[in-house]
Predict the 3D structure of the following.
Amino acid sequence: MPDKLPPLLIRPETRPHPLRPRVSPIPRADPPPPRGLWRRFWWRVTDRERPLWRRALTVLGAFAALGTALALTGAVVLVVYAMSLRASMPDTYQLMAATRAQPTLVYAASGEKLTQFEPRFREWVPLDSVPVHFTHALIATEDRRFYEHGGVDLRRLVGAMYYSARGDRQGGSTITQQLTRNLFPEAIGNVGIVDRKLKEAMAARQIEKANTKREILEAYVNTTPFLYNAHGIELAARTYFGVPARELSVAQSAMFVAMLKGPNRYNPVRYPERALARRDLVISLMGTNGDLSPEAVREAQAEPLGVELRPQPGEQSLAPHFTEMVRQQLNAWARDRGYDVERDGLVIRTTLDLGMQRQAEAAVAERVPQVARAAGARYTGATLDVHLRRTPLYARALAGGESPEAALRAVRQDRAVVDSVRQILTRLQVGLVAMDPQTGYVKAYVGSRDYLTDPFDHAGVARRQPGSTFKAFVYAAALQRGYSPEDRVVDEAPEVNMGNGKTWRPTNAGGGASGGSVRLVDALAYSKNTVAAQLGLEIGAPRLAMLARAMGIESEMDIVPSLALGTSPVTVLEMVGAYGTIANDGVRRAPILIRRIESASGRVIEERGGTGRQVLTRRDARVLTGMMQEVIARGTGARAREYGASGALAGKTGTTQRNMDGWFMLMHPRLVTGAWVGYNDQRVTFNQGSSGYGGRTALPVVASFFARVQDGLPPAAFPTAPGFGEEMTAENPDSLFGRIDDPTMAEFDWDAYLEGYGEDPSSPREREAPEIERPDTPRPSVDPQPRRISRTNAVDDVQRNAREAQERRERAGTRPQVPPPAPPTESNPNNKGGLTAEEMLGVDDG
């Protein structure tokens, strides 16, 4: 075929025009790339006219950019999240202090160590006392690059992630990171894995900056847990092998390091074969690391486990309830000042007299069982059933599909369970506190019969109704208002309309009111409820509560008429402090348990004590003390001397409704002692009768204690108020105010009352305050919730009241009699106490 066609064969549309110049065709332009990042990326990838390598490069670049963006975003999020975790982490000071942690030491007044406060029971030993093969085994197994990294081993962390992804789970935490968990298990250890690793890393970096490698190792070996309450290598060595840490062999050291991978999984007591295999692996790693020769490896692996478990008892405080109260006070003090009670090595000098403490415990051990046998215990079947429902046998019966009734019947048929519950239910308890009223120093503190069986503190924590021991505040308020011990009142029971047709009418423990006149000193000596109630109604519950608050009662008090009879619960510690105000000439000194706080270096951080505050006039305090001396001389507390108590003594007994609680407060110029005796469950009471009164339950404990310690007290006598007690009578030389000359007193058999032969009356609530229906009596509106006394400005109010009373005395020159009851009003015909409806709440204390 010819190369060129003849001109005639060329298509007309392609032949050049003879008159038109030849023009080359315009090349076609590429379309513009689309707008938008994603569309442009997709166009560059799918445009077939672009070379393949350029399209692949576009894809790789996109992935690189995306990965970089994600990495940067993740890094920012991780940093922000890590910063947010710092709020829940210990700060640098705490981390530094934790690695050098020292327990707080608590000492008695005479210098004997009572106990120490630390996170866990352990015995800290220096690193020089730990065999070198233990640290070799630790580093070879847990952290080979320990001396090379700065707290976090990134190389090991990446390797651990790689092996864990292949199914061989490995830990990436260094020794320093593990130490952070030991030191702060709550803040670092008990969280999710991501949070834990971040916190470990940050805390480990701070520890490495503040401590040497040797200090880190020492802290680690002393804080690592090894089961069976053995924290640290020293206790672990004694627990498992009965030797100190410095005597551990290579195989024994390797066994402890083997347990670090999982103490429960490699427990040599429960899983000896598993623990042995792991121990031999640790020994092999020591050989690989060059710490042991091949012969030493074989010799160590041939050694048997040889574990003989010897659990170490925790340190027992010499006064456990006292030191626990010290711990609570110290924790509150430390929170406000930035100290760590368990790690800062504080030295606490307490006020406890260890000799008195032992005598108090001996008196409790001797007298409380006797009281339990004499007074007995009363409870209903319903009360027993409540406790039977708390037994594991009852829970198992319910879990097995039994109905509650059938489960209870099954428990009742098990005599062993019933007897055990009864024994716990009827175990008599006690709380006793002794304090120097001139300093406020607490000298003895017994919270229960036995701390191990009943750790609950009945001296400073439990609140029980004080009964007639509260009458001391009633008579103090009466003296402030100008009354005299010689003033007479009518022995009659006031009636208070409680609303809803109910009347509150208190009675005396020995029987009803006589209707005759009685001196105030005699009414207090023989604990006349009727007289105390009359005085309380005239004084007013708010003013009475303010005075009690100023004298030392810190518990909330119900502003009700029965407050005068001790129906608002208080602690023994509060009552002892308040009675100390009376014995100390009206100067209030709060009970002090901690005398001085020192740093680990011996620097005095805080000294406690100082001056008190006058809340009763000296005259009123001395007159009240003289009246309470009559309680011991010839009143309800006269049996105190039968137990050997002698010297200048004053006090008050107390019994609550249905004989639930027994109290006795004993005052000496240099020692005030108080005790409560009763049962944990308030539904369990003493048997009815005088054997359940405070003079027969709490008095023997207090009097026996005082008889044991009185020879060690300095000779002292109560100062006498002007005009009182200057002459003793021949009939009763112990009496400050003479013998009882009230003829109505002769009608009551006080000998029977004191000796326990009198019959106890029925409950005053049941006998004297029945629900009386009075259709014609208006029912006032009564707030169902009793009002509470404010804790503010009580001392100032009491001082003002005392000054006003003193001014009235000076102007009048005489002391007024108790005014007659207010006449009935039209709106409240049964009100004989002049109270408002809001104050007409409460029950009789019995």
In short: The chain has three domains: 37-87, 122-302, 430-782+790-805. The first strand starts at residue 104 and ends at 107. The longest helix spans residues 52-85.
